[in-house]
Design the sequence.
C-alpha cells in the first residue's frame, strides 16, 4: 500500500512541479492530478495504450491512478495492476483507487448478459435478485466483499489504498432514501472490517449526481448523513475511528454544482459538497475534469484567460484542481501523449482562492 515515507520520497524525486501540486492524503501526499481509466473499448490494443500511458504518468510525477471493476469489463483494473508493477516507481509511492457497485462483465460483453449475471452472481448466491437494481447495481456487504476480492486479484495488490462504493444513488431507483442509507451503513461496516484486516487502507463514496444536486432531486443523498453512517459503521466494527476518507464527484468548468449548490447541512447552515467535505476533513477527488475530452478545446474564453496552461486541456485540469477542498482531479489518460500533457499541466500554478471565486461573480 502507499506509505508516508514512500509518497513523500516520490514528491522529493519530482520537485519540478508548481506549488501545491502534491497535496496531503492521510499521512502521505498525492499528486493533484490523477490518472482516470474509464473510457475506451475493451480491446487488447486499448489495454496496451492504457498500460503505456499509466507507466508514463507514474514515472513522470503523477502518483494517483483511479479505476473501477466495471470499467472496460475489468480490463482497466488489470491494466492498472500491470502498469503499477512495470513502472520504475516504488509501489508504496502510488495511491491506487478502485470502486465496486456495478455488476461487471469479464473481459468483454457476453453474448447473453442476463445469463452471465444469472450464472455468475445469482446462481452462486453472491447477489439476491431483489438486491439487484436496474439489472446492474448492487449494494450489499456480500456483493462488495466479492467485488473487493476480485479487485485485489485484478490489481495484483495486497492492499487497495482507496476503495469507493460506486454511485450508490443508483439504488434510489428501487429503494427509499432511508433504505439506501441503511444499505450504505451495512456495506460501510463490512469495509471497516476489511480495513481492519488490511485489505483496504481507506474507503469512500464515488458519485455522479448524489452530492451535487438539490435536496429535492431524485438522486440526492445527504453527505452529512453518509458521514454519520460511516461513523456508526466504524463503531459497530469495533474500530476506534472510521476509515471513511474520501468522496469522488464530477467537477469542471461547465459542471460546478459541487461548489455552487448548497444542499448539505453544515454547522452554520447549508453548504456545498466541497465546503462540507473540507470542513468534515474528507478528501475530494474530482472526476470528469475535462468532461471526457469536451473541454479540451471548449473552455469559455473569459475563464480560459484566467487559467495557466499551454493547452485548453491543461487549463481545464487546472481549473478543477483549483476548487477549494479538492485533493486531486482525475483525467482520462488513454495515450502516452495525453499522459505527458496531463503531467505538464501540473507545472502551472492553479488559481488562488480569490481568483477562483471571481470566476463565479
Sequence:
Amino acid at each position: 500500500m502507499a506509505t508516508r515515507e514512500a509518497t513523500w520520497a516520490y514528491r522529493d524525486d519530482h520537485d519540478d512541479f508548481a506549488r501545491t501540486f502534491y497535496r496531503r492524503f492521510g499521512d502521505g501526499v498525492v499528486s493533484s492530478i490523477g490518472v482516470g481509466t474509464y473510457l475506451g473499448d475493451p480491446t487488447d490494443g486499448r489495454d496496451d495504450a492504457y498500460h503505456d500511458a499509466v507507466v508514463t504518468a507514474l514515472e513522470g510525477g503523477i502518483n494517483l491512478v483511479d479505476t473501477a471493476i466495471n470499467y472496460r469489463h475489468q480490463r482497466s483494473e488489470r491494466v492498472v495492476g500491470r502498469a503499477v508493477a512495470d513502472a520504475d516507481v516504488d509501489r508504496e509511492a502510488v495511491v491506487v483507487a478502485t470502486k465496486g457497485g456495478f455488476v461487471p462483465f469479464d473481459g468483454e460483453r457476453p453474448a447473453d448478459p442476463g445469463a452471465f449475471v444469472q450464472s455468475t452472481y445469482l446462481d452462486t448466491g453472491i447477489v439476491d435478485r431483489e438486491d439487484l437494481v436496474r439489472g446492474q447495481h448492487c449494494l450489499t456487504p456480500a456483493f462488495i466483499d466479492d467485488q473487493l476480492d476480485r479487485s485485489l486479484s485484478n490489481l495484483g495488490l495486497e492492499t487497495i489504498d482507496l476503495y469507493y462504493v460506486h454511485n450508490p444513488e443508483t439504488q434510489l431507483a428501487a429503494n427509499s432514501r432511508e433504505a439506501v442509507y441503511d444499505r450504505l451503513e451495512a456495506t460501510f461496516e463490512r469495509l471497516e472490517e476489511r480495513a481492519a484486516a488490511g485489505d483496504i487502507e481507506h474507503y469512500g463514496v464515488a458519485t455522479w449526481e448524489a452530492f451535487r444536486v438539490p435536496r429535492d432531486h431524485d438522486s440526492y443523498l445527504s453527505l452529512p448523513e453518509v458521514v454519520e453512517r460511516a461513523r456508526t459503521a466504524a463503531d459497530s466494527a469495533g474500530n476506534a475511528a472510521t476509515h471513511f476518507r474520501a468522496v469522488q464527484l464530477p467537477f469542471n468548468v461547465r459542471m460546478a454544482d459541487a461548489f455552487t449548490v448548497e444542499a448539505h447541512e453544515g454547522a452554520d447552515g447549508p453548504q456545498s459538497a466541497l465546503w462540507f467535505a473540507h470542513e468534515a476533513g474528507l478528501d475530494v477527488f474530482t472526476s470528469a475534469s475535462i468532461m471526457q475530452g469536451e473541454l479540451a478545446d471548449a473552455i469559455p474564453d473569459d475563464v480560459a484567460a484566467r487559467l495557466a496552461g499551454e493547452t485548453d486541456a491543461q487549463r481545464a485540469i487546472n481549473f478543477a484542481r483549483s476548487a477549494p477542498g479538492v485533493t486531486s482531479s482525475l483525467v482520462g489518460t488513454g495515450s502516452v501523449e495525453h499522459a505527458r500533457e496531463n503531467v505538464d499541466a501540473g507545472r502551472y500554478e492553479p488559481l488562488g482562492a480569490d481568483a477562483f471565486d471571481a470566476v463565479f461573480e
